[in-house]
Write a structure and sequence with these properties.
The complex is a heterodimer of chains A (488) and B (315). With 488 residues, chain A is α/β, with parallel strands linked by helices. Chain A is built from 19 helices and 11 strands. In chain A, helix 2 packs across helix 13, helix 10 crosses helix 19 and helix 18 packs antiparallel against helix 19. Chain A folds into 2 domains: 260 residues, D-Maltodextrin-Binding Protein, domain 2 (3-Layer(aba) Sandwich), CATH 3.40.190.10; 206 residues, 3-Layer(aba) Sandwich (D-Maltodextrin-Binding Protein, domain 2). Chain B has 315 residues and is mainly α. Chain B has 13 helices and 2 strands; from the N terminus they run αββαααααααααααα. In chain B, strands 1-2 form a two-stranded antiparallel sheet. In chain B, helix 1 packs across helix 13 and helix 3 runs antiparallel to helix 10. The longest helix of chain B has 34 residues. The chains are: A alpha/beta (488), B mainly alpha (315). The interface between A and B is large, with 48 and 41 residues.
């Protein structure tokens, strides 16, 4: 994805991130909280399944009853991870089912390529539904186009038939693929978010990675004194800057504030946690710690300037390293830290936003649904996860797929994001509103761009956010969801 | 049975037109009709429409503040962009063809180096939009490295710590986009007007010269009136382009999913349509928008053609 700066490019990533968490939507009437413990349920609530591929655990080698004579039609989004990894999966598939013909398609224009096929009832058998042109999962689901993947979760794992696939995935993966009580997308790529820096630059200047916001402000002053800008962000796409802001809100406010915001409650944005966080972020603008002009830069422009040492810190997800591969000077030693804490935080400083992204789906009207499910089962094997790490240079949601040999080959940033995930020790931040309410997220982004450009003040931002939430809550054409009360 | 000669002639002509007409019907007219049909429904865009809602989408449109804002922006572009483009193109074409000093063959020629300028002005036309976008993304870059910022900083209008925002400025974003549009299209209309000017008989100019007309008088009294047909064509095409402006706004202005920022100050109808169609799951609503744009464009073209109708001079 080196199409410099075209928004399709960034939105892809953004979608990767967002679609990641098309998350645990528990409808108001549903009794099932979307906990990962929900073990049963595939047979009863399986409304979108055509029924031809009921899981048959009696044959762990072929639980979905794949027939090698049925061709498999694969479509993958060709973005930052390329499509070689998918070809590797396809090779694994044909090895298991000799003689099966697999047709491989990849592209970036998913809506253009696939919308007509869905409308005509002839979709591919498995799709990596990502990118700027992604077909929205809630929209697909609402139209009954998705196969319930709980049958995949309940199928035996390839590596150990005594285990179910659901037990071989990283925590949070299942919830992030759920719509209601069932999983409809396998979000395969693992992403963590934080503030990125050059470890070698920090070391050279004897700068300490800050853990509190006050420390961070002190550090910013020190950095600015050297002539370097302390902070850069991808201003053209305000989504990026909303991530650190909302992570601070989550840490400072805890589950109550998160629930209020996700559920569009009145005055949710007037909470102290929001005020504290918005004020803190605005301090960066107010004190002149931002890279001049960064509010108008694309992700590529700002990240490249950061790589060149014009700015010390930039917020991003862990795709950053792969994206900046050619722009990163040798010895840069990319690393990431979690959002510094504010006084009175309700979550530990080590808590991070960690998401499973890149949703893979099996259409309910797929000709070879069994093949599509088996393809996903192969992806969930250790060999699949290892193959992905090598072909796409990124981590997958498959547990223990990274052997020490593969780990040794990881780039510093990937290693650092892995450390960040481990340090969080189960304390992960998740927001749901941004996938549930696209218009609300868009309104927030507009307000954020103005705050970062110093055109409005924190109080104005909060007012705009609240009125956007109220507008969304009052819009009867928008389907409403409730934040799950207990997530991992 | 023998057909009358006239009938046979018509059939003969029709046989040639049938192919293109069919293509036109299938790929242009039919989608329009379908769009109109979909605009009356509630449609997510990924499965057949769920229900017919009549004109609700249209009613909603005119209560939608973003839609109205986008419409206003399109109207501003519609007034400024064709006017400036045509005026500049006419001026340049005149200078390149007849604006030279007196003397030379027949006393009428372009300014020195006109062949060179013609190529230079036409250059933006041969660049693809993608290249133009990348070019202007760097030119308008909102920090001190951007081309325009480097210039204004050199001129002392601002300093490196306070670069101008250009595309990220609520006040200037639309003007930045219009600047690119004009830059992109002036060359094309320059060539169009040049071609038209070259068809104007040289004697007219000679006569004007002999009568003692200066450059300005020649321009307004001879050139302009005789170019009217081309100007009319230019108005229609530029009006259509002004109603579109999709590629530049979607790629250059800030904001996810088809730009339109900052804070909707760069929004145009086409980008708002696409966001509704692809991102917000409101494809039916987006179709209604498409129909409205279609009618606005149609009406504009008719108005322009009517309003500018003049007597034609044969030469």
């Amino acid at each position: 994805m080196s199409e410099h700066g075209l928004p399709a490019d960034v939105s892809r990533r953004q979608m990767l991130v967002r679609s990641a968490a098309i998350a645990a939507m528990v409808g108001p009437g549903s009794a099932l909280a979307a906990g990962c413990a929900a073990g049963s349920g595939s047979s009863k609530s399986n409304t979108n399944n055509s029924g031809s591929t009921a899981a048959n655990a009696s044959d762990p080698k072929n639980p979905f009853g794949v027939k090698a004579s049925n061709p498999l039609d694969v479509y993958v989004f060709k973005g930052g991870y390329g499509d070689n990894y998918a070809k590797a999966f396809e090779a694994m598939y044909t090895k298991d089912f000799p003689g099966a013909s697999v047709s491989h398609h990849s592209g970036q224009n998913l809506t253009g390529d696939l919308q007509p096929r869905f409308n005509a009832g002839t979709p591919p058998d498995v799709i990596d539904d990502s990118g700027a042109q992604q077909l929205k999962l809630d929209v697909l689901h609402g139209s009954g186009q998705l196969t319930n993947l709980d049958q995949l979760l309940n199928a035996p794992s390839i590596d150990d038939p005594s285990k179910k696939v659901r037990d071989t995935l990283l925590a949070g993966t299942i919830e992030q693929g759920q719509l209601g009580a069932n999983m409809f997308s396998l979000n395969y790529v693992f992403t963590v978010f934080g503030l990125w820096y050059s470890a070698s630059t920090f070391k050279k200047n004897n700068w300490q990675v800050p853990t509190t916001w006050d420390d961070f402000m002190t550090l910013c002053a020190t950095i600015k004194a050297t002539g370097m800008a302390p902070f850069a962000h991808q201003g053209k796409y305000p989504y990026y800057m909303l991530v650190p802001l909302m992570d601070m809100v989550a840490k400072n406010g805890g589950p109550d504030v998160q629930t209020a915001i996700d559920n569009l409650e009145p005055n949710a944005w007037k909470a102290d946690a929001v005020v504290n966080s918005v004020n803190a972020i605005y301090e960066l603008v107010d004190k002149g710690y931002m890279l001049p002009g960064t509010e108008g830069l694309t992700h590529i422009q700002s990240q490249t300037l950061w790589n060149q040492g014009k700015a010390a810190v930039i917020p991003c997800g862990s795709w950053l390293e792969n994206e900046q591969l050619t722009a990163t000077p040798p010895g840069f030693d990319m690393a990431v830290f979690a959002m510094p804490s504010l006084a009175g935080d309700k979550m530990p400083q080590t808590a991070v936003r960690a998401e499973a992204g890149e949703p893979f789906i099996v259409p309910s009207k797929a000709k070879n649904q069994a093949g599509g499910l088996e393809f996903l089962r192969i992806m969930c094997s250790k060999a699949g996860g290892a193959s992905f790490a090598q072909n796409a240079n990124s981590l997958s949601v498959v547990k223990d797929a990274i052997t020490p040999e593969i780990s040794a080959k990881l780039l510093p940033g990937t290693k650092s994001s892995n450390d960040l995930y481990q340090a969080a020790n189960g304390q992960y931040i998740a927001w749901y509103y941004l996938n549930w309410y696209s218009q609300f997220e868009k309104d927030l982004e507009d307000a954020m761009s103005q705050l970062m450009a110093n055109k409005i003040k924190p109080a104005d931002f909060i007012n705009r956010a609240q009125s956007a939430a109220d507008k969304c809550a009052a819009d009867s054409s928008v389907q409403k969801f409730k934040r799950p009360t207990s997530t991992s | 049975m023998r057909l009358r000669k006239k009938t046979r002639e018509r059939l003969f002509i029709a046989s040639f037109l049938a192919g293109p007409l069919l293509v036109y019907l299938v790929f242009v007219i039919w989608p329009y009709i379908e769009t109109f049909g979909y605009s009356l429904t509630e449609w997510s865009g990924v499965a057949p429409p769920t229900k017919v809602v009549g004109l609700k989408n249209y009613v909603d449109l005119f209560h939608d503040s973003i839609f109205l804002k986008a419409l206003t922006h399109n109207m501003i572009i519609l007034i400024v962009f064709p006017t400036v483009t045509i005026a500049l193109a006419m001026f340049f074409a005149f200078m390149l063809n007849v604006g030279g000093r007196r003397g030379g063959l027949g006393g009428v020629k372009g300014i020195p180096g006109s062949a060179f300028f013609r190529i230079v002005f036409f250059f933006p036309q041969v660049l693809s939009v993608a290249i133009i976008v990348i070019l202007f993304q760097s030119a308008y870059e909102s920090n001190s490295v951007g081309l325009f910022n480097a210039i204004v900083i050199k001129l002392g209008l601002t300093d490196a710590n306070h670069p101008w925002e250009f595309l990220n400025s609520p006040t200037f974003v639309l003007w930045c986009i219009m600047f690119i549009l004009v830059w992109q299209w002036v060359g094309f209309y320059l060539v169009l007007f040049s071609a038209a000017m070259q068809q104007i008989p040289r004697d007219y100019y000679e006569a004007a010269l002999l009568d003692g007309a200066g450059r300005t008088q020649t321009y307004f009294k001879v050139t302009m009136p005789l170019l009217w047909d081309s100007v009319q064509t230019a108005w229609v095409y530029l009006a259509v382009a002004a109603m579109d402006a999709f590629a530049l706004v979607a790629t250059l202005t800030p904001g996810s999913s088809f730009g339109g920022g900052p804070d909707e100050h760069g929004e145009v109808l086409s980008t708002y349509l696409m966001r509704n169609f692809q991102v917000l799951g409101k494809a039916g609503y987006a179709c209604a928008m498409g129909v409205v744009i279609f009618f606005i464009t149609l009406i504009l073209s008719l108005v322009v053609l009517r309003a500018t109708r003049r007597e034609r001079l044969e030469y």
